[in-house]
Specification:
The chain is of the alpha+beta class and about 350 residues long. The protein folds into two domains: about 10-40 and about 70-140 and about 320-350, no CATH class; about 60-65 and about 150-315, C8orf32 fold, CATH 3.10.620.30. Helices cover about 20% and strands about 35% of the residues. It is built from six helices and 14 strands. The strands form three sheets. Strands 1-13-3-6-5 form a five-stranded antiparallel sheet, with no helix packed on it. The two termini are about 35 Å apart.
Amino acid sequence: MTVNVCGMIAAMFIRNRLALPLIVASFIHIVLIILLSGCNAPAEQTALAAEEKITLSTVKRIPHGSVTYDVTESMTVVNAGSGQPSKQNLWVALIGDVPPYQRVESLRISPSNYQIIDDEYGNRYAEFDLIDMPPGSSVEIEVKVRVTANDLIYDLETCEGAVPDLLTEPELHVESNNPQIVTLAKQLAADIQDPCRQVRAFYNYAGDELVYTFNGHDWGAQAALGDMGADCTEYSSLVMALSRAQGYPARYLEGLSFLANGEQGLARTEHSWLEVYLPGVGWTAMDPTLGRSPLTRKDYFAKMPPNHIIVTKGRNPSVLRGASYWTHLYWPGNSTEIRVEDFGWDIRPVVGD
């Protein structure tokens, strides 16, 4: 996971896995990108609008307790150059309420020069205006959240009925129309009539065939079928792509994992998993990365222990511009050098409060 500065006119800092340069022809072009980045494609708007109409009466989730955490996200923005930016913004994704998974108890953000914006997936961000940064100055960014995560088990006894016609299309890193993925999905689902068991076959395939390797990139589903190794982004993207190829809606969740002593080697704190819409059940969570071992596989399919905290929904949120958790943009880049340093998370379970 790296942070990169790109461009002579503009610079974008991207946290995690994949750095996508922002190449612009002119100052006007940059402004247009900023203004339009939150706009949705009509098809996506339609799909997400339809998603909101899905009845919750079919969703069978059984709460089994919860854990409350104090989560602190912090970073330092440093002007290490000789000039002052004429424009600078930082977008930080905010942990929010995501029923039935989690509920935010409190939220504190500093400094106070921010506004709250939303994206096409309903994610919320604190957008900081950091134009006033002379050479040698720095700004400390801190987001403190108290959030309660629920322990959920899904009832798969009845897995039949219709599924909504949305979130089954291919997208960046979820190549559900790739011939290799389409063929593999058909092979894995062959002779299995029950939709829940079909999706379980996709989940099992990821656990059996992928080799966990933290790669620092965001290669996606198709690349996961190669021999380059896979981390949580590939595990989740591949199960999403296989599910979509069979007509099951699937969506991406990115956030944090808080693993007990002895489990830290299973995944990093910055983590991703997914949901698949199962007929008669509804949106069903699964974590193929943490379930890759036969010893833990049953604990992360149609179950969601309270060690997951969602930060963003959706595989490619427009506000983040290909990044994860936060993104940063400033210009001019030819006379200004600004870095984001010391990014990190502190997660502590609340005990006896």
